[in-house]
Structure formats: structure tokens, C-alpha cells
Design brief:
The protein has 65 residues and is mainly alpha-helical. It has 2 helices and no strands. The chain has a domain of 41 residues. This is Transposase.
Length: 65
């Protein structure tokens, strides 16, 4: 037989108030939103990199002229 573990009222209340695990649909929705945000961040980083490359090119051309 298993050993009985007595819980305090605080432990019982914490278990009752613990957040419920997400359903599969909720998890999918959460991941879709995260994916959308990551794609937007990636696009912003690509645009920033392209801008920096253009600035560096202009600086190099200005120094060589």
C-alpha cells in the first residue's frame, strides 16, 4: 500500500488554485500567435540588416572616392 502524505490547508488551496493545463486548441492558438510574432520580428531584423548593409556600402563608397 502507498504511504499517506498529509497536506496542509495551504497546500490544498494551492492545488485548487493552480492554473488548469491548456487544451490542445488553446495551445495551438497560443503557438500560432507566437509564430506570428516571431515572423514579424524576423522580418524587422531582415529589414534592419538590409538598411545597415546599405549604410555601410555608402560609407565605403564615400571613403573610396
Amino acid at each position: 500500500m502507498g504511504k499517506i502524505k498529509w497536506k496542509t490547508q495551504v497546500e490544498i488551496d494551492e492545488e485548487k488554485n493552480a492554473p488548469k493545463p491548456l487544451t490542445q486548441e488553446e495551445r495551438i492558438h497560443e503557438l500560432e500567435q507566437e509564430n506570428k510574432l516571431l515572423k514579424a520580428q524576423n522580418t524587422a531584423l531582415v529589414q534592419q540588416t538590409e538598411f545597415h548593409e546599405e549604410v555601410l556600402t555608402e560609407i565605403i563608397l564615400a571613403l573610396n572616392s
